[in-house]
Amino acid sequence: AAAAAAAAGNYCTDAKEKQTHFGFETVSESEKAERVYKVFENVAKRYDVMNDAMSLGIHRLWKDALLYKMNPMPGTKLLDVAGGTGDIAFRFIDYVRSQQERRSRQEMKSYQSPSWQDISKLYQQQDDNDTHLRSKAVICDINKEMLKFGRQKAEQLNYTDGLSWVVGNAEELPFDDDKFDVYTIAFGIRNVTHIDQVLQEAYRVLKPGGRFLCLEFSRVQNPIISRCCSKSMLLSEDTLT
User: Fold this and answer.
1) Keyword Repeat, does the record have it (predicted)?
2) Rounded to two decimals, what is the model's pTM?
């Protein structure tokens, strides 16, 4: 009788747990979280290759477009959620570096015939600006294996400065309020269990006026919108105030 009661109790608990989708299956929310974790744990080392194969390399163009849309300036603090292998963060660092180099060239051109003193002063100003306007990208992912591979890739590609790797859940971020200028999530929001909680957390950690950029694709059901979407990439951005 006790065993039957325990079984009945477990059945009631399971029955109450909310259901969600995992691919074409309907599973419990806890099971989805476990399955998603295992999938990315198993494919971490092959994740970038799989993206190339499944998108024929187009995902790289989408990510480049995301950075051009973001247009980060020196000093920008980025949080890239579900960013395990570092694709967005590396592009962010490259983009900011190019902005800094462009600014330096423009300042150098402002001196028609610079003396050695002018050049020395300019480089000193650049060093000061680099200190005060140093950009930073924080890569946050719930999967340790994805972050591990991302770190290895960063070392191989010589991305040593301006990056932090943090294990964290998008639905409960381990960061203070009003901390970041930009929040990105690329092809990750589909894998979370509670999208509303993810958005609430994004709002919380972004500074007033911060920017939320989500790169994602899915089948659009509305035929009118579908025709529009087929002609352009979906790249959503909201400025949070």
Assistant:
1) no
2) 0.71
